[in-house]
Task: inverse folding
């Protein structure tokens, strides 16, 4: 079952690439004690994700920051792919690119999907969530193939 508003973000250790090399981040620390808008995409460099989803959050990053929110992009991809995708989208300093290489965090959220029919394997659904102090305040999960409720523009209306 998918995480719901009012529930605590699960603690999962993930690896991400920084200017200091590979680092471990605990999702409890990432979401704890702050306001975070996180969105998940089925895959880095995929059409909707690259043309609309990530660019929307990059373009509106200052508006989220003005409201006190950090922005995190999550995908079941490896740290090297997420780093390259973030660089290609000029996300540095605007959107933290969070790889969930093994899908552990996505499964802990209950928001995984089977993309095997498209050659993608196990991935995360397209969704966005608003969290404060490590607790989900709002969750927006897209219907399969849709891109509406998890957009930066929709989240800005709801935070």
Result:
């Amino acid at each position: 079952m998918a995480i719901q508003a009012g529930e605590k973000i699960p603690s999962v250790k993930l690896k991400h690439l920084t200017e200091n090399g590979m680092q471990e981040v605990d999702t409890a620390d990432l979401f704890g004690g702050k306001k975070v808008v996180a969105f998940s995409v089925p895959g880095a460099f995929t059409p909707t994700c690259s043309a609309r989803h990530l660019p929307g959050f990059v373009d509106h990053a200052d508006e989220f920051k003005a409201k006190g929110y950090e922005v995190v992009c999550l995908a079941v991809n490896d740290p090297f792919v997420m780093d390259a995708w973030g660089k290609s989208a000029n996300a540095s300093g605007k959107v933290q690119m969070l790889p969930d290489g093994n899908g552990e965090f996505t499964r802990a959220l209950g928001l995984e999907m089977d993309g095997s029919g498209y050659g993608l394997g196990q991935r995360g659904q397209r969704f966005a969530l608003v969290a404060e102090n490590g607790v989900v305040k709002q969750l927006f999960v897209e219907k399969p193939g849709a891109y509406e409720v998890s957009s930066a523009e929709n989240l800005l209306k709801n935070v």
